[in-house]
Amino acid sequence: MNRRTGLVWLAKIFTLIILCCCGVSRSSAQSNRRISGKVTDTAKVSIPDAKVMIITGKDTLTISPDEYGDFSYSKLNADHFSIKVVATGYDDFKLDYSFADKEKHKKLDAIRLKLSGRTLQEVVVRAKPNPIRVMQDTVEYNAAAYRVEEGDNVADLLKQFPGMEVDGDYNVKVGEKTMTKLRVNGKDFFTNNVKDFIAKLPAGIVSKIQVIDDFGDEANFTGIKTGEPQKMLNIVTKPGMNKGAFGNAAANGGTNDMIGGMAQFNLWNDNKQSSANVNANTSNNGAGHSQQMSIGLNHSDKFGKNSNGGFGYNFNDNSAAFNREQVSEILNPEGNLTNHNQNVGDNKGSTHSLHWNMNFNNKKTLMMTGFNGSYGSSSNLSTSMLQQSGLLRQDLANSSSSNSKSPSANGNINISHKLKKNIISINASFSANGNSNAQHISTNTLYYDQVTGALRKDSLLKRDVDSKTNSRHLNIGFNYSFGLKRPKDTLARRSININYSGSAGSSANDVDTYVFDNRSNKVSRVDSLSNSFNSVTYTQSIGINYNYGAAKWRYNIGLNANAALLSNHDLRLGQTFTNNTINYAPSLNYGRTLALGKTLSLNYSGNTQSPNINQLQPIRNAQSLQNILVGNPDLKTSFSHSLSGNFNYVQKSGRSLMVGMNAATTQNEIVTDVTLLPDTLGSLKQVTRYENINGNYQVNGNYSINIPIKQNKFSVSYSGRMGFSNRAILFNHQKTSGKGANFSQQVSGRMSFKKLMVNAQLSYNVTNNNNTGSRYGSFNYATLGIGQIAAPTFFKTTVMGASLQGNLNLTKLRLNGNVSYSTSHNSGATDQVIPRNSDISLNLGGNFTIHKTWFTDFSSSKRINYGYAFPTPSPLLLNMGVGKTFLKNRSLSMSFRATDLLAQGNTISRSVSGNTVTDSRNLQPTRVFSLNLNYSLSQFGGRNFRVDPD
């Protein structure tokens, strides 16, 4: 081999080495490619038990997401690949992907699985279900871990969840917050109102219940979560149960002149939802006749690929006579008052309402529009007799009649669009409202000598008051978010958000007062009690926020400036009053998943509240001659601060700890300044004015511990609330404060077997009733005279209670019973102590199938009560019924019922607010015999579900 030949071979070897290195480099580059993504359901809740399959050619690799739904794989050696995701109860997902040139990390869009539309056979799950799972902004309850019997509704299921409260009217509370918004499978569901449907939907269709901190549809689209979230209930149905028909129709007649009928049906097929209802009935309620009539029609559906919308019309017409009696004990620094009031009359009202909405969402653009219009009319006729004793002795006989009309319309539009890195949002809304009211008032005041008690004067005054109010409001908003560059090797999103909102409102208020002269029989206008007032309000808010979002934590921090301008023009006096205010407040929203089963969230927000036209008018409102109201044109806009936080910890066993706190304070809060003035007859008159005040605050905390035993067959719960508050009050132009601590503890236990459930509960509560909120801020709150005074003396209420409840379900027999005891004690800062009132209640009820389609049911209740201001017999209530079912699924029934066979029922109740304890009772018949025909429809996924009435 010569030298030339050797050089040629060296060149070939060098070239081969270079080619091999390039191949290795290319192979290494391919093998280091990474993909990442997230698997959720349509409600954006993670599905950790899903299986993610990465397909490259003939090779398939299966991985599982973590508990947050996130997945990633970093050794992919192909340019093209497919992703297939499967999960029990959901439709399969499959999509092809490709890497771009020089792309090393492919970040997939969130994969959202839809519930399967196929009806699956029942599967016996032998694995131990996890009762509770906590995620960022979501607490999820697994229905399989709780007792669900045939005939149970969703409310029966919710009552078993720790940290959740459901009352007799189907109001749902989680911690300190009331939950009103409802969705099913992450989608709007008819009216979206929780209490409208948790009693109608069967628990048997539920797979999971999710309690979500909802920041609104715009926040879900943009990912920018600001402000205080509201609690939303999302029902995740079992596979194939996302469609159905439910409702009922009934007709009845009874011995209390009762006759009527109703029908209410809902058709549901995922996005397509239609409902219709009609109701008409009349009865004698003891004070007179009561009539109700209503008609409603609602429909919503998806049209096109990315749009959905709906419309609805509702009409209500009601009239009812009433006969009420109240006895109030009022604490006051000048001396305590006792008011005994009897009130009879009749109320009538009707309302027409129309609504329409349309939404568009193609993942790049979100548009939401809506319109609501309504027209209402009402009339009222009432006569009352108020007897006052204690601090003063006087009687007030009042009669009044009124008629009012109130049209209103409002609309809104919201558009958000995602650019490559930035997001822009624009929103606008308007509202227009009107109210016209004509009122005739006749007041007869009886003055007594405060020493001898002899009648000194009988004063009669007749007045006609005509008032008209018209208001208009316009809001606009702008939001721009620009994304910041992501750090390497992270999925975190960072952005700066700039927002602006402005509003303009105007209102016109005219009041004309005419007085009838008993001596001349002439009617004359009283200028001092009449006015014509125009008000204009402008508010603006600008803010800047920094947003950070990652798989396990997110936060939003910012600063907001709020400006308000109030201008009020008195046409009668030719004077204009103006007021300008500017407030600054930070904003904070923080959420973090600390570890598996541990979440923490914090929220802070501030907002302004302008005084209303009635609080601003510097005129004397003398609808009640003993309680004259005067507005204040110099009122400032109030600004409230709110801070809340939650910590949730759940173990795989289902043991859970839920802790919450909230604090609030208000600057320049609008309160009443009450002054008692002597008159020429030795009596007293009350003058109420409005002022701004500082010093009001409240701090509260709540906690709930739940321990399930033996796969949730037994459970023990311990919960409580503690709080401190201060209520600053103006009385006789002097500022005073009412401080108090609230304390509540509750221990409960539950035993759940296949046919038997037992619940037991002990509770202890101490409440200082100083946090009366806006109870004294209403312009027309008092028409009966002196008494409802925001005095710096408050009642402290101590309540102890115990209850035991059980349910037994056999093939032909169902029994339910409970025993409860409650005692309440109210004491004030003075020597005034209201007698302790106690209630002991024993209840037993059930139903029994006599022979196939024949049934009988009964309920009994013994209530022992004492300590009320009224004579309080302890009634024994007996109710019975017998009936027969028809049709194959027994959906049609006819029954004969008797309620309160012994006619011992009464309607006595006690309420405590601030410095007032009130005992009330209404006159109404309780013994009624009735014949009832009922048809019930409850079909989901092709199956019939029975829903028993509570």
TrEMBL record:
It comes from the Bacteria. Residues 394-413 are annotated as: Disordered. Pfam families: OMP_b-brl_3. InterPro entries: CarboxyPept-like_regulatory (IPR008969), OMP_b-brl_3 (IPR041700). Residues 398-412 have a biased composition (Low complexity). Keywords: Receptor. Residues 420-780, 797-935 form the Outer membrane protein beta-barrel domain. The keyword Ubl conjugation does not apply. This is TonB-dependent receptor. It comes from Mucilaginibacter mali.
